[in-house]
């Protein structure tokens, strides 16, 4: 017998579009259009005319009379259709519009967004005449992987981008629309079944019967009605669909446009809720809510009302959906603090689920941070993109560095932009890897990235799929509904799987290096914010930097800080960082002027005591002083001198005699700890640790070598880095060597290397008393599509490298022995990477880089990239970074301490008084002392006054290297009471105080927030 199944299904596909859909609109009338750049100054505009210079706004007014025969006609609905010139591309990546109501006072009330997948606006109370006002944004479209000058407004061009296509009034037949939805779902369900499945044949036959009945809509609906009856099948997978609109806080558009995307999307979601009471919308990012609250308070109140009735579900508990790899641990803590406080204040409760579907990897310290922020549930999706290895679970416990766990769910639909199609449901069931113990999963649906959110068509499909799919039920709900079901399953079923350690993302490794200025600006501001809070607490006052924190946190969004946005976004971010940095430095200078105990003082914001070489600008001290007598003129307007300073404190600068000296020759530098030698090309050929009698550089290899490789990813230029980029890299050629400083306190030798259009001046610096060689890189970078790295081969045998991450260290493989190991050819580390044998090791430190490679018996630091998309001029220009090679005795705490000092250098202060406001500025406000003398494994993350204005001192710290420790916490004045707190500073349990000192045990990698009530006379004026 002839098999015509495929032909019939092709017929169905065509006729649904060509025969049925045209019947939905039973009548149509053209509207008159006016347009202009100001809603109060509009001129006649012809449909079919080009409009919209890049990044500009055009106001359109569409108006016309509604035919009398349409009004009150049963079984119909009146809608306006506005097509700004859309393509079928997804929403959010081209022109967009917002339908607004102009009120009597001239203000604009948002009603609904317009985009390629939502061109219709429903007229609920039609009168005899209709006038629609639309704010339209002519945002450029950026073809993927194609460099474009449109990423900046001044280079975006002067030609209109779009042609206004349609402004019509339509009369829609409700029953015909319903039949279209019926057939859409049944057709999709049919195609998701196996070709020989009897149910597929039955559905195919019913659809054909319905199409054959056209134009008799009632007969068509009768033909398919039996197949839309709820199925009574056992053991169907339960899918909870939650409305969602992933709105990138910036990406291929600036933050200015994101604010408007939020307005369009949120107004559309509210309108859908009014149409469909079952619709539930989950929405994250407190910053985006705050924008709406400020600009559209009426819309914000509508959102609050829907939160109260359970249709709008605030999720995520963070200020923005931040990148997880690059911000400091304290920054991530503040993301949660500001996010959870906002949700609690505005919506009555904090979030219970972390919601970050689209970030590029998840460090191992996150579970305890999430839990400390009140969130024990976690939703993400991005690991489904892994290129090398398929993650083995969709629902599991994620266990972090300290043993904390969060219940984690990866929606098996493998997208956060689902459209609720039968194919997506089938994919969810097929991909779900935990059927053995779980029968529930989540589908986040709605147009995302550029926003837009759910549409009416998605909801109609959802209502039908929930009854007809033979393998799954579908309901609208929240992530909490999914986790509640998972927890019930775990109570009565098999144990939940556990994944321990980081969730490494096997893509987008280039985001660890792209857009260096953005990354460096963020790191500087993170450091300064914490430092400002420290000195303010030392003065007994609040730093009042919440608004600055929020500005920085916003720029940590997962397409800003990773460097994957258009040029406009990064220019804006860098301007924010520059302004915040200047503001903070001014505040810090003023506070330190109060704290400085002497005419010349030093302030140490690091959590380890300092004893070493400090550089004093010549103008800060008198000629003939101890600085001059004991110091070394450096020839750059400064003097190097040995000095000391307490951790987290301020002290008089008292120059100390050097107990060590640096000796420099044409080919070598030595001090009492290291002997460094270079060859005639300026490459480091030897670094000998004198105490251990160990050579750090393997025989026949060179260290601090610049390597240049062509960097052309298969896709996602600014995001991805391929394994062969490093494999094909070659050393940069010889350089010009110059001795800059000859000791005795500081030795410096510079090597200038020119390669193509770029130049690097690499300066080796050895200081008296130091067990590390500083390597300063001053790079003038003008390459495109290349990766520049600096390689440090190390003669240390180690199977893993210890990489500094938030709240601890993660061990990464130094060999590609398995597919999971091989995928980690580029990894994230914040301040150091260390290789260790039991009694000896070597580490590479940095003050401003994140991308590292640890294969091939070397540590490589990624210095610069030059992606062409989406910013064709990314990273061109001047960049500076300091690296260091540190020899150690296998003591990771010593490595951490050195990295802390490199990243939080001393400040030299002038103009202080021996009679300061507090009278005790040389004593730190807080000291954390370990029972193990000499250790520095306790890292202080923040010292500040409590946010509630009580005057309590809040100290946050963590154990940083995996070593259980007993510590004592002391303050400048007696501690009267102490408690451990969550991130929001709410007490969890008390800590015993003896003689005004708190002693406690801290587990490996444990994060602790202490709230301390000090003696009443602690601070003047408190």
Give a structural overview:
By secondary structure, the protein is α+β, with helices and mostly antiparallel strands. Among the domains are: 508-595, Glycoside hydrolase family 38, central domain (Substrate Binding Domain Of Dnak, Chain:A, Domain 2); 693-733 and 771-901, Beta-galactosidase, Chain A, domain 5 (Distorted Sandwich). It contains 19 helices and 57 strands. The strands form 13 sheets. It has a nine-stranded antiparallel beta sheet, covered by helices on one side. It has a six-stranded antiparallel beta sheet with strand order 3-2-5-10-7-8. A six-stranded antiparallel beta sheet has the order 34-33-39-46-45-42. A hairpin with a 5-residue loop joins β7 and β8. α13 (516-538) runs parallel beside α15.
Describe the structure concisely for a colleague.
This protein is of the alpha+beta class.
For the structure shown, list the relevant keywords.
1022 residues; Beta-galactosidase, Chain A, domain 5; 25% helix; 31% strand
């Amino acid at each position: 017998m002839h098999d015509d199944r495929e032909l019939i299904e092709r017929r169905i596909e065509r006729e649904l579009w060509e025969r049925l859909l045209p019947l939905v609109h039973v009548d149509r009338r053209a509207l008159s259009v006016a347009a202009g750049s100001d809603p109060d100054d509009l001129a006649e505009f012809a449909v079919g005319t080009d409009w919209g210079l890049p990044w500009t706004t055009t106001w359109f007014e569409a108006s016309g009379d509604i035919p009398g025969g349409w009004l009150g006609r049963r079984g119909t609905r009146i809608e306006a259709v506005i097509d700004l010139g859309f393509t079928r591309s997804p929403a959010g990546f081209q022109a967009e519009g917002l339908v607004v109501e102009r009120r009597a006072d001239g203000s604009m009330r948002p009603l609904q967004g317009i985009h390629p997948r939502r061109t219709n606006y429903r007229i609920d109370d039609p009168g005899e005449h209709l006038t629609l006002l639309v704010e339209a944004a002519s945002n450029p479209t950026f073809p993927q992987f194609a460099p474009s000058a449109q990423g900046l407004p001044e280079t975006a061009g002067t030609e209109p981008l779009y042609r206004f296509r349609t402004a019509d009034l339509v009369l829609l037949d409700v029953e015909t629309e319903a039949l279209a939805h019926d057939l859409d779902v049944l057709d999709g369900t049919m195609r998701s079944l196996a070709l020989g499945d009897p149910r597929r044949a039955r559905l195919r036959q019913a659809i054909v019967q319905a199409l054959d009945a056209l134009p008799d809509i009632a007969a068509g609906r009768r033909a398919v009605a039996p197949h839309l009856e709820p199925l009574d099948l056992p053991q169907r997978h339960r899918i909870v669909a939650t409305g969602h609109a992933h709105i990138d806080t910036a990406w291929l558009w600036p933050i200015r446009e994101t604010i408007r995307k939020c307005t369009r999307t949120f107004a559309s979601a509210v309108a859908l809720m009014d149409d469909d009471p079952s619709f539930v919308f989950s929405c994250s990012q407190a910053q985006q809510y705050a924008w709406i609250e400020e600009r559209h308070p009426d819309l914000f109140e509508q959102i609050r009302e829907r939160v109260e009735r359970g249709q709008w579900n605030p999720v995520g508990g963070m200020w923005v959906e931040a990148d997880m790899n690059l911000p400091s641990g304290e920054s991530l803590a503040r993301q949660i603090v500001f996010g959870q406080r906002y949700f609690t204040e505005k919506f009555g409760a904090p979030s219970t689920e972390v919601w970050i579907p689209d970030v590029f990897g998840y460090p191992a310290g996150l579970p305890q941070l999430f839990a400390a922020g009140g969130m024990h549930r976690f939703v993400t999706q991005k690991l489904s993109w892994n290129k090398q290895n398929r993650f083995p679970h969709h629902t599991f416990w994620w266990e972090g560095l300290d043993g904390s766990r969060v219940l984690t769910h990866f929606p098996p639909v493998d997208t956060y932009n689902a459209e609720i199609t039968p194919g997506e449901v089938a994919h969810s069931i097929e991909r779900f890897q935990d059927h053995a113990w779980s029968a529930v999963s989540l589908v986040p649906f709605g147009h995302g990235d550029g926003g837009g959110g759910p549409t009416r068509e998605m909801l109609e499909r959802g209502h039908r799929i929930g009854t007809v799919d033979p393998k799954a039920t579908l309901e609208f709900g929240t992530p909490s509904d999914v986790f509640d079901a998972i927890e019930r399953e775990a109570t009565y079923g098999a144990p939940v799987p556990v994944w321990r350690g980081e969730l490494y993302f096997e893509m987008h490794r280039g985001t660890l290096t792209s857009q260096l200025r953005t990354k460096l600006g963020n790191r500087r501001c993170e450091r300064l914010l914490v430092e400002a809070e420290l000195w303010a607490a030392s003065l007994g006052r609040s730093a009042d930097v919440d608004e600055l924190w929020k500005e920085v946190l916003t720029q940590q969004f997962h397409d800003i800080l990773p460097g994957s946005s258009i040029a406009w976004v990064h220019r804006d971010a860098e301007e924010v960082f520059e302004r915040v940095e200047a503001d903070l430095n001014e505040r810090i200078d003023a506070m330190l002027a109060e704290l400085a105990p002497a005419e010349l003082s030093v302030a140490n914001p690091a959590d380890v005591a300092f004893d070493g070489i400090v550089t004093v600008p010549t103008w800060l001290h008198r000629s003939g002083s101890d600085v001059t007598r004991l110091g070394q003129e450096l020839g750059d307007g400064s003097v190097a001198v040995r000095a000391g300073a307490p951790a987290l404190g301020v002290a008089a600068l008292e120059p100390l005699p050097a107990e060590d000296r640096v000796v420099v020759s044409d080919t070598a530098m030595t001090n009492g700890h290291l002997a460094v030698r270079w060859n005639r090309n300026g490459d480091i050929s030897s670094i000998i640790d004198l105490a251990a009698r160990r050579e750090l550089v393997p025989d026949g290899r060179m260290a601090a070598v610049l390597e240049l490789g062509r960097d052309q990813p298969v896709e996602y230029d600014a995001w991805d880095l391929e394994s062969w980029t490093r494999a094909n890299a070659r050393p940069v050629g010889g350089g010009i060597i110059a001795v800059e400083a000859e000791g005795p306190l500081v030795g410096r030798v510079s090597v200038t290397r020119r390669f193509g259009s770029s130049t690097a001046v690499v300066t080796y610096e050895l200081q008296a008393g130091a067990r590390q060689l500083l390597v300063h890189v001053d790079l003038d970078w003008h390459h495109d599509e290349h990766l520049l790295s600096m390689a440090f081969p190390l003669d240390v045998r180690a199977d893993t490298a210890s990489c500094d991450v938030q709240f601890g260290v993660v061990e990464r493989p130094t060999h590609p022995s398995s597919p999971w190991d091989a995928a980690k050819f580029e990894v994230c580390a914040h301040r150091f990477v260390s290789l260790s044998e039991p009694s000896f090791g070597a580490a590479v430190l940095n003050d401003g880089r994140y991308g590292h490679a640890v294969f091939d018996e070397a540590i490589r630091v990624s210095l610069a990239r030059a992606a062409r998309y989406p910013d064709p001029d990314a990273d061109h220009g001047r960049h500076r970074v300091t690296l260091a090679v540190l020899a150690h005795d296998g003591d990771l705490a010593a490595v951490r301490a050195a990295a802390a000092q490199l990243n939080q250098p001393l400040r030299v202060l002038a103009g202080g008084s021996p009679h300061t406001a507090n009278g005790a500025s040389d004593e730190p406000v807080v000291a954390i002392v370990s029972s193990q003398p000499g250790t520095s494994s306790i890292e202080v993350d923040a010292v500040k006054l409590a946010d509630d204005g009580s005057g309590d001192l809040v100290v946050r710290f963590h154990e940083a290297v995996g070593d259980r420790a007993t510590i004592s916490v002391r303050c400048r004045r007696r501690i009267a009471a102490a408690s451990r707190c969550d991130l929001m500073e709410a007490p969890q349990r008390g800590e015993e105080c003896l003689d005004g000192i708190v002693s406690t045990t801290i587990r490996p990698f444990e994060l602790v927030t202490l709230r301390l009530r000090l003696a009443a006379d602690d601070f003047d004026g408190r």
